[in-house]
Amino acid sequence: MATDGQFEYESILCVKPEVNVYRIPPRASNRAIRAADWKLDAPDWTGRMRVTARGKVAYVKLEDKVSGELFAQAPVEEYPGVAVETVSDSSRYFVLRIMDDNGGKTRLQTRRC
């Protein structure tokens, strides 16, 4: 018997061939996130971004440009939501909330598609 979503196709919604990723330190207060607070000239990682959808869930996938190896992904069930946050001082950047292999949260800033 098939499990829920087993036969759903994954559709590619958007591909951005080059994105920059910046590691963001934990937020100290409820202050809005600002892109100007990070070293935008020194990204921590550069690669490709693909936005895909399977069923009712979209996935923002960050991949190596050459090998396609997955660097990180964030499932997006609703927007705005916990997985994707806007940046208060720019429409070109957004924040992804991803889970590392140990279940810890990591926030990455990247360019908008």
UniProtKB/TrEMBL annotation:
Compartmental location: Cell membrane; Cytoplasmic vesicle, Clathrin-coated vesicle membrane
GO CC annotations, alphabetized: clathrin vesicle coat; plasma membrane
Domain of life from the UniProt record: Eukaryota
Keyword Cell membrane included in the entry's annotation: yes
Entry annotated with the keyword Iron: no
Keywords: Cell membrane, Cytoplasmic vesicle, Membrane, Phosphoprotein, Protein transport, Repeat, Transport
InterPro entries in the record: NECAP_PHear, PH-like_dom_sf
Gene3D superfamilies for the chain: Pleckstrin-homology domain (PH domain)/Phosphotyrosine-binding domain (PTB)
UniProt similarity note: Belongs to the NECAP family.
Job description of the protein: Involved in endocytosis.
Protein name: Adaptin ear-binding coat-associated protein 1
Lineage summary: Eukaryota, Metazoa, Chordata, Craniata, Vertebrata
